[in-house]
Task: structure prediction
Amino acid sequence: MTTTYESNIVLSSKEYDVLGTRPIRHDGHDKVTGKARYGADVYPTGLLYAKWLRSPHAHARIKSVDTTKAEALSGVQGVVTGKDLPETLVEPGVDRTVTLGELSTDLKYLREGILARDKVVFKGHPIAAVAAVSPHVAEEAVGLIEVEYELLPPVLTAPEAMKDDAPIIHEDLETEELGESTGKISNVAQHFQHKLGDVAKAFEEADIVIEREFNTSTVHQGYIEPHTCTADWNADGRVYIWNSCQGPFNIRDATAEVLDIPLGQVRLTPMEIGGGFGGKFEPYGEPVAALLSKKTGHPVKMVMTRSEDLECTGPTPGSFIRVKMGATRDGKIVAAQAHLAYEAGAAPGSPVSAGAEAVFAPYDIPNMLVDGYDVVVNKPKTAAYRAPGATNAEFASETVVDELAEKLGIDPLELRLKNAAKEGSRKADGVRYARIGCAEVIEAMMEHPHYTAPLAGPNRARGVAVGYWMNAGLQSAANIAVNNDGTINLTEGSPDIGGTRASLAMQAAEVLGIRAEDVHPAVADTDSIGWTFGTGGSRTTFATGWAVYEAAQDVKRQMIERAAMIWGVDKDSLEMERGVIRSEARRQVTTQRTAGTDRYRSVLHHHEEPEEPELSMTFKELAEQLNATGGPIMGRGSVDPKGVGAAFAGLIVDIKVDPDTGKIDILRATVVQDAGKAIHPSYVEGQMQGGTAQGIGWGLNEEYFMDKEGRMANNTLLDYRMPIAMDLPMIDTVIVEVANPGHPFGVRGVGEVSIVPPPAAIANALHRALGIRIDRLPMNPGAVVKALWEQSK
Amino acid sequence: MKWIDFARPATLNEAIGLLADNGGKARILAGGTDLIVQLRAMPGRINNPDLIVDGKSISELNELSYSPESGLTLGAAVPCYKIYQNSEVAKAYPGLIDAASLIGGIQIQGRASIGGNLCNAAPSADAIPALIAHSVTCKIVGPNGTREVAVEDFCTGPSKTVLEPNEILVSLHFPPPPPGFGARYIRFIPRNEMDIAVVGAGVSVVLDNGSVKSARVALAAVAPTPLLVKEAGAALVGKPASDSTVSEAGELAKAAAKPINDMRGTIEYRKHLCDVLTRRALDAAITRAKGGAVDAH
Amino acid sequence: MPTKSHVQTRINGENIEFLCEPRQSLLECLRDVLQLTGSKEGCNDGNCGACTVNLDGRIVDSCLVLGVEANGSEITTIEGIATPQGLHPLQTAFLENAALQCGICTPGFLVASKALLEQNPNPTEQEVRFWLAGNLCRCTGYDKIVRAVLDASKKMGASV
Result:
């Protein structure tokens, strides 16, 4: 287990003053002392607590809802049902579409997911909610609501739901086939296809072709803080919301849409967020709490229980995937085909399109055919989860690539490197890559001592896999105000889930030549900053970072102008570098002074030396003079960047298997990832380690264990088994830096891709350890033993 | 709203009186790690009690006394950590220590009691097979006096026990370990801690000159109650403590198990684990009986 | 209407009295009654450790303790770990080692880690992992948390 490498390495490509250092995060002290206020830590005066009534059935028609007894209970102040939500049709049968996180959805589905009206389509589907003086009263009142159901058969997996005789979940859902509406009603919301070259011909020419089928289970983001929100419908009509979310503007807008009020009427204040991983982009309680507040005249808080969070918020889909890949004897992958059927859950909108983009994305393959199916089933509507759609798809493809390497007798990383995508390579969707670091990641894996370290002992083996994620751009805004002490106030709109106050502050500090500690970053409410897409898609340090960069450049320009005015010189003669403003036109200084600058002359004279003075001022020195020289300086940045840099990661993992029990232990893990530029390497490492841990959990034990009626049997954190500290080794990291040409500092975004490789890497290690290939996730102990039994048959 | 009252009686008689006064609508609280979760279950799922009777101020429920002559008396409310912190007890009752140190995490072990684990009567309860292996007797007190029940007879079904509504489990009595005694509790869980047994195996052996004088094998999570597999223990008696006799016991345990298919495992897998765990537990118990040490778990 | 219970405790070194319903957990009392919101609710059934507090010298999940049970007890929450003189070395180590991302599990980890170092000042990596098995973190993969605890242990040892 010893290594001569450091545990955490940065293969840095460019050095900066602030970027690449490791300052203490700005919100750190609040978060280690318990002062930081999270979503549920809001206690406005007169607070009421609300609870949901949820369907015990996965598929049923609602015949009647009677809230009389609940309303009569002492302490109950208000009850709402689906009938309280306004209809928002733009024309008969057609609803508006709203964008939430990395997915978009019809408003109808969003509204009906928040409170059902006529039909429930997953177990836990909310039907009503009660606001009361205490959560216990609310809970008891919920139990007094009487609902009559007409039960319908549930359909729980994509292959099942795609059958011709499957029960139909949405009677008005028309299948979209290759971009065209078919008029056919089915559970398949959409079938699309990516086609490149001629796969049929290429498979014929391939020396070796491997085709495998895979099934993966539904899994949850598993953030530790359940969904929560508090709403106060103010007397002036404004709706104040405090919550824990990734996208304050996304949820503000969605809430306004569902309530059918102007979006500016809602002010959303994002509290500190206790994890999201993609799962906190969607409104669940916000419109309900708002309606209850309007009804009762009190602020209303809703906090999900852990079971509600698992059963009723958006997990990431289970999937059925078929992958076929062909290669020539010399190790060139010439053809790849995939069929991806993802469970959207109770409404359309699974991340299958991202899965289709990702499935073969690490490779330069001339012939590809990818079919994607978005399939509704009676499970909670899926939401984003860290590289949504990619882990499922690349578990399948990376397992097949490993098998190709085995059959070809080529080292698995060598095969990957030989076929690695590079600048100019086309993905299945036809889009060509800009500069990417796929090959560099694979090379760093091959060079890492872990890859060649001896691994002794029975039933132990090493596996590898690589992963791709697209990353996101989208809109962000930032403001910077310069304080007179030379510090700056940075205001931005991206909730800080994992240290982004620091990574944003550092980019401002780098531009202005000040210390990271001289920046005071704040995440603003939706009244106080421009529209900013949520924290997701690995975009905050990239896109909001760019907005911050622009805001800092704006400040820099204004500081230079101010200095020019003070000195009475042409602003073009000034430059600002490393926080010092200098004039290149020293000699002209005295002669160019004009009457207009006389009032500042005394200040300058004070600094002037007898001979030629050097005109120079630090950022701080100038900041001190702002109020006396025309007033404060504020910079602003607003961006919608297009130069999103794709992310690649790879995992080397050593496992030990107990063949009697089927249990897999992770002995050692090394994750390699291209960050473009690691702004704060500690938090980049944290993302890599955290994603790896989630990928390991997904690979080994996490799953929605559904009974035949569509109820999640394992709806607690005891039985939904996320890795604990005992389940993981130290996770070593190598940060590769292949600068993204689409960002001023080369940033790519680091939040997601590391979740992709672990399931395949573990499956590949398992094959080396015991000779079995597992084609399902999770590879839990029971599945491993079953595979061993089948092997011995 | 339904109100739940709370009482912390100082004596056993007072507690029994409270139970009687509340006509079956009172529950005894020890560590609370099961009861408090159950109180919180959504309305309609369980019958909430009217009264919670905290047993932690009753001296009999907090007793932890051991002597080599009379054995161990373990009050029903003694939290796990007090058991494994007691080195004499740890040495004499290794199967108990195995169970007490793997129930929950450190936080749970600060509160959860072995008696509570028994009264909760989960088929998967970690403590119960260990108690069976240690031939524990349960002391029950009620309005009509005291009675004793062998621990293997205490649970009657999932969440069901022999306790009458007005009775309290006061303590568990562990007989003194005879010479040549060794015990072991192990379970299989997918994670490395903080999990529910897919299968658990609690065993004990008494060795005499390398052959088995007596043995007990008990299983968790393979029947409606923790299961004493008498035939598996009996099969070992009079035979050398060898791999083949241990394998025979494993096969018998597997045959006796009547598990269900659920989220934690299939019938086939669980039966297979009964064999694996019984063998592993017996190997460890034999090692201990011979004075050897085994890994924590 | 039944009356609430009167509970007397010492919390973070101060005598604190409060009223609660018997069914309210200690966690609910800390948060909803006393506004000590540093202890977090992650699962409400003892499986995540985010509500960990020290109760009479032992760490417990405060969601699995009734508020009324705390009568006469001494409680330390995350709010009581730093002193007016500064952060506890564990808190400093968590910051220096970037041992938190979202930070929701951090209070529970700090309260638990402090109890570990009090009874075992020089734990091994495995001992740290075992002790913290009842605390879930979904962000970090535990690497930097374990490093922070080991780092604090080293620094606290050095300062003695």
